[in-house]
Design brief:
Length: about 140
């Protein structure tokens, strides 16, 4: 396969992924990050002030308190995006701000690995949520 064909395939597949999730690229190109296989949760909704929390292992009270293998980003809520969380039956794409070197990412997760346990979300927020309250 030639480089030209690879480039065509890359942009064609990117467009198909965006379309399947309802994402419309506008103003800024945000790279996708493959987070399938990670456990994740949204804390504080899907908009301004929300956090996207992820881990290689399922969340537990102990893992949240330990904090060594739990990572978080704020949900990237720029006005040029119509929304910030894009859901399909099988996958969810979350616009994230890493607050590191200006990096913004479209993190793609397996829908079935989302943690919706309100007690775990509240625990994370009480322990770590203050880190994102001023950003």
């Amino acid at each position: 396969m030639s480089l030209a064909n690879d480039i065509d395939s890359y942009f064609g597949l990117q467009a198909k992924i965006h379309e399947a999730l309802g994402y419309v690229e506008d103003w800024r190109v945000i790279p996708m990050d493959d987070c399938r296989g990670k456990h994740w949760m949204l804390v504080g909704g899907e908009g301004v002030g929300a956090s996207c929390v992820l881990s290689d292992e399922p969340f537990t009270m102990e893992s949240l308190r330990n904090g060594k293998k739990v990572y978080s980003n704020s949900v990237y809520t720029q006005r040029f995006l119509k929304k910030w969380v894009y859901r399909s039956p099988t996958h969810v794409m979350v616009a994230c701000d890493t607050h590191t070197d200006g990096n913004k990412l479209l993190r793609i997760f397996d829908a079935d690995k989302e943690c919706t346990d309100e007690a775990l979300q509240a625990e994370w927020k009480s322990l770590w949520g203050r880190l994102w309250s001023d950003v």
